[in-house]
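Help needed: design a sequence for this.
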């Protein structure tokens, strides 16, 4: 992921946030999925703390993606892909949360951790955890325990497809 969340003038807020979040190294040992999401957010915060506080904005070029620098050919978006657009949106949400102080709310941390999980390819584990096992079994049985996309054996609901 090629993003940066360090906001000029807010290194103290990042330091405070890093101290409040569960450590990413402990994510596998955390029983509570909400705290796992918060620990995932700590991974991005740790990366942001590595940037110098006086980073200057990069000059804009309408022909390149502002997130990754690759060519952006769309007339409707400055980004080269949905992935870059979503990463930039995540960065803006973190920066806004730092500026407003809302990032110190544990529920907001969980939401941002969930978004980060999705961005790095982990889906929405918190949402999956909220689906009762009985419902998951019904969906799997209805699909004859097969992936609706490729036909391979399915063991999880996320491989079944939508309704």
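Sure. Designed sequence:
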């Amino acid at each position: 992921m090629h993003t940066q969340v360090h906001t000029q003038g807010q290194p103290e807020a990042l330091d405070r946030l890093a101290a409040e979040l569960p450590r990413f190294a402990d994510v596998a040992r955390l029983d509570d999925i909400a705290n796992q999401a918060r620990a995932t957010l700590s991974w991005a915060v740790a990366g942001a703390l590595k940037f110098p506080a006086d980073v200057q904005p990069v000059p804009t070029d309408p022909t390149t993606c502002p997130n990754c620098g690759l060519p952006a050919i769309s007339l409707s978006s400055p980004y080269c892909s949905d992935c870059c657009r979503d990463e930039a949106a995540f960065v803006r949400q973190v920066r806004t949360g730092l500026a407003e102080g809302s990032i110190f709310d544990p529920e907001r941390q969980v939401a941002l951790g969930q978004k980060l999980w999705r961005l790095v390819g982990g889906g929405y584990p918190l949402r999956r955890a909220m689906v009762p096992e009985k419902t998951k079994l019904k969906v799997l049985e209805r699909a004859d325990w097969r992936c609706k996309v490729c036909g391979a054996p399915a063991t999880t609901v996320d491989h079944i497809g939508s309704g």
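DSSP finds six helices and no strands in the chain.
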